[in-house]
Structure formats: structure tokens, C-alpha cells
Amino acid sequence: MVLLILFVLTGCARPVRVGMSGDYPPFAYRDPGGCLRGYDVAMAGAWAVDQDRILSVVPFQWPELASDLEAGEFDLAMSGITVRGDRLIQSPMTRAVATADAIVVVRMDDRALGLDARGVRVAVNRGGHLEQVARRKLPRAELVLVDDNRSLPDLLTAGQVAAVVTDTLEIRSFTPSPRVVRVLQSDRKAYWVRRGENTLLDSMDAWLAGQEATGALAARRARYFDGPESRLSPAEQRLADLVARRLQVMPYVAATKESESLPVDDPGREQLIRDRAIRAARDSGLEVDSYVALVEAQFIAAKAVQRAYLAGDNRGLRIFSLREDIRPAIDRIDRALREELALHPGNLRAAALLGRIEQWAPLPGVTRATIAPVVDALLKVSVAGH
Q: Which strands, in side-by-side order, build the sheet including 76-82?
């Protein structure tokens, strides 16, 4: 079923198909009358009006999200989509539009709960990002996978499960209010664009940047999320997000290299990247030596994550093509990072960047010692002539 949600009444309006789950408040959910509401619904409508687009909504189920996007069922997904390494490799993601912590909640009157005891029943949405988090962070729990995400509060209230994995934004729709007993990790939300839709990606990213600059994005977040804004500046948020995204891709680099019997160290490839970085810095208006120093620091951090995964258990990670999938994804992230640095953001704080990168790339091999040199190099990148 395709539900048309917005007409832009001009003769040249271009259609865009938007995938929405309709079960994830406050991003995209149906009200009692069946109408779509939420932050991402409002964002889609505002973007369509500004960009002269016709939007149609294509419903998706979370287990089929990735395959539906890859098959071209819709042009982009907007339903509180979490930024993840495998998603960044499969298709581009826009700049982040929100942040949320994955959490475990219990009934308010449940004062003690041994989440690490074997067999504790914990409900979570099937096929979504939070299922992955629950499997990784609660390995002894008996996961109850739920297809109707809106049923999670009822399962908890009825005592059919001991706990629910949700996030700090969705929890506000739970009635009665539950109690948070554990924070599992911190995530960012973005829009997931079908591969090859470069014009759509650029349009959405440019619009989001403009909305952030004017304060319109912050105002919309305040309306739907009803919480404090980040203490980081938009530039700090963006830079930390991009550094974290690059690190999030590295476990898949490690798994793919291992599957192809390739070494972590590849001096020839690294030299090629250095040569390209020199040209890219000049094209972006960045001072060359300082940007190459950042690239060198990223080499070291990336290999630290790869080695940590190869030394541990990286089974189950999807294998991608280095040439066709992974390298283009890294190139997109690097290009976005150069564009942000070329804006010459000032008043960047090392401690704030370090803290956010650690939160957003909670990976083996990501430590203060690993990422501090990256942040130090990042702060030293300058615009040519400044």
C-alpha cells in the first residue's frame, strides 16, 4: 500500500517515495485516527514544501528495511533510522537529525532486576537496530521479539516480560511510565537514502544544514522530543558524528579483509590515500599538511579497530566488497568531513569531541588513546591562507 501524504501543487514537482514504519514514536507513528504523525513526518513535509517535491509513503517492516531500500521499494527511509556501520556501507545516510540512548526499562514498581541472569524475558522490536543492541549487550536474556513495536508498553505493564529495550525518545510514549535501569549505548538518527540517489542525498543534506543554521531544526526537535538540546555546538556534533561513522565502518573492513585473506596493513593502499588526500585538501581549500596529518591519525585509529575485531569475535558481520561498497562509503564520509572543515568551524573543544566519539563508536579498539590523536589532528586542520 502506498499512501500519498503531501501534494506540492506545481507543474514540475518531483515525486519521492519515503519509507516509514509508522510504529516508532516520536519519529513516525499513527494516531488513533490512523494518520501519520511525528518528527520525521513533519520533517518530510517541510522538506517537500521547500524543495517542491511530492511525497508518497511506503510502509515497511523493520526486518525488511534494508532489503526494501536495496530493492528500490522507496527512495529514502525516515523513521528514526539509527546510524550504523553496515547501513553506511549499504547506502548513504544524511547528516544526523537526532540523538537517543538505547535503554532497558522495567515497571516503575520493579526495584530489582538481574538483567544478567540467564532467561530473563526482555522484549524488543524485531529486526530493528535495538534487537542488535539487545543481543550484544544482554547475551543471557531471553529475548521476546515483537513485530508490533507499539505493543511493547502493554507487554511490560501486563508482566509478560520483565523488561523492554527501547530508547530515550520512544520511552515518552509509554503509559504508564517505566523506570530506566540500564543505558546500553548512545546513537544518532539520520535518513537513509537509496544508493545512486545522489541528487536526493545532496538536497536533503543541504536542507538539513540550512535548517540547523537557522535554528528551525532545534525548534522542531524541542517540539517533538521535549528534552534539552545537546551541549555541543552543531559543528562539534557534525565532526564527532563523521569521525564516529568512519570508525563504525572499520569492523566490516576487518571482516571483509579476513574473508579475502588480506592483511590489515596495506602500505600501497595507504600511500594512494595520502596522494589522494593531498589533491582533495587543495580542492577543498584546506591546508595540505594539516589535513594529511589527520588522514595519518585516522589510519592508526582504523587499524586499531580492525585488529581488535580480528582478535575477538567478529562472526556474523556482513561481508561487503571493498571496492564496490566499503571504499565508496569511506570516501563519502571523508568528503563530508572535508566540507565541514572547510567551513572553518571555531571554538571546537577536544574533550567534548572525544566524549561524543567514544559514545557514538562503542567499538573494540576505540579508546581515548586511539582517538585522542585523531581529535588533536582534527583541531589543527586549517583553511589554506588562514
A: 3-6, 53-59, 14-20, 76-82, 179-193, 98-106, 163-167, 121-125, 142-146
What pLDDT, in 10s, does the model give residues 18-48?
A: 999 999 999 999 999 999 999 999 999 999 9
pTM of the model: 0.93
Identity (one letter) of the amino acid at 127?
Answer: G
- Tell which residue, 368, 366, 336, 338, has the closest CA to residue 350: 368
CATH 1.20.59.10 is the classification of domain 234-380: yes
Whether omega for the bond prior to residue 26 falls within 30 degrees of 0, making it cis, is: yes
Q: Are 74 and 19 in contact (CB under 8 A)?
A: yes
Of the candidates 188, 187, 220, the residue with the CA atom closest to the CA atom of residue 39: 220
Q: Domain boundaries in the chain?
A: 3-98+190-225, 100-187, 234-380
The vertex-235 CA angle with 55 and 171, nearest 5°, equals 60
| Dist. CA 340–CA 282, nearest whole Å | 15
